[in-house]
Amino acid sequence: MTVVATPPAPKLELPPLKLGPITVDTPVILAPMAGITNSAFRRLCREYGGGLYVAEMVTSRALVERTPESLRIISHDDDEKVRSVQLYGVDPVTVGQAVRMLVEEDRADHIDLNFGCPVPKVTRRGGGSALPWKTDLFTSIVQTAVKEASKGNIPLTIKMRKGIDDDHLTYLDAGRIARDSGVAAVALHGRTAAQFYSGKADWSAIARLREALPDIPVLGNGDIWSAEDAVRMVRETGVDGVVVGRGCQGRPWLFGDLMAAFEGSDVRHTPALRQVAESIYRHAELMVETFGDEGKALREIRKHMAWYLKGYVVGSDLRHRLALVTSLEVLRATLDELDLDSPYPGADAEGPRGRAGSPKKPALPKDWLLNRNLDAEQSRDISFAELDVSGG
Predict the structure, then answer these.
(1) What's the whole-model pTM score?
(2) What one-character-per-residue DSSP string does 329-340 give?
(3) Which residues does the annotation mark as catalytic?
């Protein structure tokens, strides 16, 4: 793959990220993304650079019930040095049982709790980014999870958003509760649930959280589309590391750029279309290994096509056919029809990617915002609120 030099920048004086017994030399975290960060995609990213690579979010209830899909989600390749799992849950008992299972059965080296998911099917049940508003429930879940994880000396972290909307911010309170409960680190996405992925991430909120929690690692997330964005976030906010989500969709080599930037190198990946096609095909092959089903694997790879091909000159007919591939043979033949000598298109291949959505009123349980603690009806309902497998 072609690499180019950008104007040199001074090396960041950023130490390795310490999460309990785990040392992450390059303080970069792959954000868990449902349907994206399976073992195939994690392997692609790991081959380019260092960091911590988190599996797709899985619900605590599904894990406790040992559904086949939940067990697939938490599976890791033998050579994944840190097996990182993210749990979603709204019931402290169920979350505690899921963490206990991971610990006692030696299925994880690091556990993250999701308090940042903004999708309506999660927030309307009181989960994800809606949950920290209820400080009693949030405290109970975090304390229970930390207690169970500590039995195996497994670091537990949390990922959250600023709050539900600008009138109902929770991140400072939640950060302090998590710190006092013994979490190993806190990650903040600089958006509210109401923003979804629209607008601009508020890095000033990340800086405020960093200032409020000087005694544990704080990680920043939101609008990291390039290595330069990551460096700028560290310098502007003082965070101990960055969390990358949509920025790496269709660009697993971003982790190589991030590692280089954090080491003070000006080398960046600028793949021609031939290298992109090779990555697409390898990604598909790894997906076949992951799912053991070529048809399912090829259906899964389709969503990645637009991300991989962003900015490259590819006709609408070829794009349409790539979005409908049914086998590795068809994929290989269709990729070979591309103008593989097309060079890297520069800025057109960079910048925001993935679905941003639009601001919207968050879907919440009845009377959720009336006070910061659960009422009797909400307490009764909460144990039934978990979804089947993955929150999205």
Answers:
(1) 0.93
(2) HHHHHHHTTS-T
(3) 117
